[in-house]
């Protein structure tokens, strides 16, 4: 009889038990770190939980953070699952956020159409920016890891320059922030929970995750993308146009990353603000790695990531701990989830067997 395994990953590599063990190990090491700072770990974890789920406002903040986590996690998943190292998600979401901010106050549309227009415009901007490393790879064989990574910095400064040069009154009086004027009310995403930053963007994010799931699960294009990622030579022998798939990967990944920046602009900030992203692009990389390139995993891990982020702010207000300790917990979680516990267990069994053999040989020599 086949044994059932409950997993979040499609290939079954990461089970729910492994997620649980990794979470326990993360909390254990985190507790030691908190103790070293003179705080009560149990109290700190309780405050994190309260900040994430303890009230309607807390749930709203968690849903707010879940939107960019799901979107940028999906963008990273499309790239990594297909064997492409798109490390330029940060830059792509900046372009998306900038264009969405421009579309939000330069264009006048009805309330229902205006947010959709801004999201679409931002997604297209992220997609076009993602095509730069794709063409450099195909035409000049430039490694996409280098180009996508460097283009992040180019995008940040480029959007700042465009904001200052193209848009009058971009710099807010009395501040050092570079920002566009406020978008029209018709362009704003509808608030989901009054008094919080949770918006209907959560439905957009979940829809994107489901679309990515359907793409890889039920479409020929998704199957070909997966084959390119798993075995490029085999895919080419099977008649897959690798160059075409490479472009599609960057198109889809860049579009979703741009969508993430758009959602932040019209759902949270209500304008484009320079350097608005708190390393969301790298959050996406870690989320999809923890999720083992599974859309369902991205959905679950994004909620955990969002809860950490929402809870960290509350913990900082109620304890002497800095909220950036959450970054440490997230890094530890990624570390522990990456460990091959099965291999460690097999090595332990081998060590125990060798130890038993040595002890038996020693007893024979004594006799």
UniProtKB/TrEMBL annotation:
Superkingdom assignment: Bacteria
MF-aspect GO terms: transmembrane transporter activity
Signal peptide from the UniProt entry: none
GO annotations of cellular component type: plasma membrane
Subcellular location: Cell membrane
Keywords annotated in UniProt: Cell membrane, Membrane, Transmembrane, Transmembrane helix
Transmembrane regions: 20-38, 58-80, 87-107, 113-136, 148-172, 192-216, 246-266, 286-312, 324-344
Topological type in the membrane: Multi-pass membrane protein
Predominant location: membrane
PANTHER family listed in its UniProt record: ABC TRANSPORTER, PERMEASE PROTEIN, GUANOSINE ABC TRANSPORTER PERMEASE PROTEIN NUPP
Protein name (record): ABC transporter permease
Gene source species: Anaerofilum hominis
